[in-house]
């Protein structure tokens, strides 16, 4: 019985030693890797918003020399390591054209996270953009039309807006339905963003070919005063107008 107890003790002691040695080496490896990695500059690039049908392209420069080109990658997050000290610039596509962001590494042990907001709107730009809906005078009407066209899909939606006593109404079968201030602001914002979309200006100077498109138009006094075609997936909010027109 005593031999059995001693044997069990020796086995348990041996297992404890192995466990402690394993833990020691794991910690040693962790600190070694941390020390090695800390002597490199790291960059994380993230694209927002995430889109199903189109990935934003971008170019990565160091001191005005191109070091990487992201062209049609399916990844919304990219990591870069072993970056030297210096000045860097990211040039990227947005729904409004080309934009860029500059940053630098001043040491060899830095890390940065850059988020490329490809649909971020400028409040100043929107404030300066004319809106047919917003500029309606009392007792004037305007009709919004939305359509979606694809190989096997065809959808349409229409809504007429009346302004009366400085309030906005939907006209449904001859009946007025008050539009909330929040909703009319969203409709106006949607129109203004559409007018600022620019897909022809991009870093690769290329055209986008798809089999699905959305069309938005405004008609006043029987005449179309504005129309815009947007390829599906290029602007994540393009179909939201359908909800606003209910």
Instruction: Please indicate the percent range of residues in DSSP E strands (runs of 2 or more).
Output: 35-45%
Report the average pLDDT across residues: 83
Largest sheet geometry: 6 strands, antiparallel
Task: Tell me the number of strands.
Answer: 13
- Residues in helix, %: 10-25%
Residue ranges: pLDDT <50 for 5 or more in a row? 1-14
As a whole number of angstroms, the C-alpha radius of gyration is 29 Å
Specify the number of helices: 4
What gross morphology would you assign?
Answer: elongated
- For the termini, the CA-CA separation is 85 Å
Structural class: alpha+beta
Succession of helices and strands: HEEEEEEEHEEEEHEEH
Largest beta sheet: strand ordering? 11-10-9-8-12-13
Write the layout of secondary structure elements.
Elements: H1 2-37, E1 41-48, E2 58-62, E3 65-70, E4 77-83, E5 86-94, E6 97-105, E7 111-117, H2 123-127, E8 141-149, E9 154-164, E10 167-172, E11 175-178, H3 181-196, E12 213-220, E13 223-231, H4 241-244
Parallel strand pairs: 1-7
Antiparallel strand pairs: 1-4, 2-3, 2-5, 5-6, 8-9, 8-12, 9-10, 10-11, 12-13
Please describe what this structure looks like.
It is a single chain. With 246 residues, this protein is α+β, with helices and mostly antiparallel strands. The protein folds into two domains: 41-120, Immunoglobulin-like (Sandwich); 124-244, no CATH class. It contains four helices and 13 strands. The chain has a six-stranded antiparallel sheet, with helices on one face. The chain has a four-stranded antiparallel sheet with strand order 3-2-5-6, with no helix packed on it. A three-stranded mixed sheet has the order 4-1-7, with no helix packed on it. The radius of gyration is 29 Å and the shape is elongated. The termini are far apart. Residues 1-14 have low confidence and may be disordered.
